[in-house]
Structures are given as structure tokens and as C-alpha cells.
Amino acid sequence: MAIGKKIIMLGQLRNDRLVQVYDLVYKTKTKFSLDNLIPLKKDTWANYLMGVMDEMQKAGYPLQGANLIFISNIPKGAGLSSSAALEVVTALTMAKLNLLEIEPVEMAHLCRRAENNFVGVACGIMDQYVSCLGQKKYALFIDCRTNEYELIPFRNHDYQIVICNSKIQRGLINSEYNKRREQCKKATEFFAHKLGHKIQALRDVTIDEYKKYQRQLPEVIARRARHVISENYRVQAGIQALRTGNYSTFGQLMIESHQSLKDDYEVSCEELDLLVDLALKQEGVL
């Protein structure tokens, strides 16, 4: 879902292959050559920009050097996709400066590859998709297998999405993200062996199939799989709830999602759990 936070970048073409970048918020700058894009150990924030330019060139898009300056009010490490926003605004700016036409879905995947291959984070596509395709008053449904997407209206004036900052910073490189992906991969391989050819990902496992074989999985792997399988069902149910204006059901599904993330996927924290508990005690909160 699009939120009221943004990143703004201004760019100016150069006559050489040098890129100079200045961050107005942190008052820091860096420079690099388009002919020598190597991840930095210092000023690692620049790796997100460099990775995008690297992937653009690998995709055959010709780039010139540029002077770039940007400002952002998206909190870093707060789970609001600040890195994806930086990647997408870099891709948009470089495309505009170099008179390139890149479709939003292609741009999202290009930015994801930048984060996977250059930055070294095995992230999914969700953050880049919503940065490229999100719209005000719509939730974005993404099918990561087919690359299809759908904007789902969220227009009830009686309800608003409230974002609360727990002040707990999260970094995907140093987080448990990559470990969870590996655990889910093991679960997928288990179900593929048990159920045959039709299992390419955990989304292909039904809840009944999961219940039938869950005791044969290691306890931790079983909980990770339960989260993913049940979350896929919650997403589909959530879409139907929004389409029919059943916001109470949508709220209940969000509560269940948090509990699953907390207990089965174990990616919550005490501060976030407290925020949820306090919110649910407030009148009008679904």
C-alpha cells in the first residue's frame, strides 16, 4: 500500500562516466565510475544506487555519468522499504536522464536483482513492486510466480491504516531473512518429495496436506512452513474481504498474520508485540 512518505532525487547528466551522489539528509556524498562498479565497504548506502546502475547496464541500457542529489523522509531500517525506494528512484532518474523507457514491472525486477546480486540481500519482490506500482487508497496484490498484480481498493472513510514506528531498526543483510528463506526451501523440498511434481513452492501445499505431514518435519521447519502456507490463505481471504467491504474480517486476518509472524516465523520483537497489544485495546481498532 502506498503511504505518505517519499524520496526525491534530482539528476544532471555529465559528459563522462562518473556518478556523483549527495544525500541531503545525512550530508554525505560519494562518487564512482560506471565502468568500475564494485560494492563499497564504506558508504554502503551507495551500493543500492550502484547495483541498480549495474543491472541497467547488464540489461543493455546505455548510461552516461550523472550528478545526483536526493532527500528522503522514509525511516531507514523501519520496515517501510527505504532501500527499495532508493533503488526505484535511482532507476527512474537514470532512465529519465538517459531517455530510456522501462516498464514498471521490469523496473521492479531490475531493482530486486540489484539488491540480490550487488548488495547481497536475498530479498523478495514485494518492496520493489509497491514502490513502482503502489497507488493511494489501494492495496497491491502481487502474484510472485506470474508477475501479475492487482490494485485492490481500500477506500472506506471510516477506517485508516496507521503506521507506528517501534524504533527498532532492522537490516536485512544482518537479519534472519536469509535463514528463513533457507528453512522454507527445505520445507518445499520435503513436500515436493512427499507430494510429487506439483510442488514448486510452499504456496502449492494445501493446509490439509500440511497437516497430514507436519509431524514428519523438524519442529522449527514445520512452523516456518505453517506460517507461509497459512499466510497465503490469509492474503486471498483478505482480498475478498476488501472487495466486499468486510473490514472487520480484514482486521482479524491482520491480527492472525501478526500472531503467525510472531510465533511461527519468529520475526517479531517485544516492542512490536507491545504496540499490537496496545492498539487492540483501543476503541475502533479492527
UniProtKB/TrEMBL annotation:
Residues 47-134 form the GHMP kinase N-terminal domain. The keyword ATP-binding applies. Transmembrane segments: none annotated. GO terms for molecular function: ATP binding; galactokinase activity; metal ion binding. The keyword ATP-binding applies. Gene3D superfamilies: 3.30.230.10, GHMP kinase, C-terminal domain (3.30.70.890). GO terms for biological process: galactose metabolic process. Pfam families: GHMP_kinases_N. Keywords: ATP-binding, Carbohydrate metabolism, Kinase, Magnesium, Metal-binding, Nucleotide-binding, Transferase. InterPro entries: Galactokinase, GHMP_kinase_C_sf, GHMP_kinase_N_dom, GHMP_knse_ATP-bd_CS, Mevalonate/galactokinase, Ribosomal_Su5_D2-typ_SF, Ribsml_uS5_D2-typ_fold_subgr. GO terms for cellular component: cytosol. Belongs to the GHMP kinase family. GalK subfamily. NCBIfam families: gal_kin (TIGR00131). This is GHMP kinase N-terminal domain-containing protein. It comes from marine sediment metagenome.
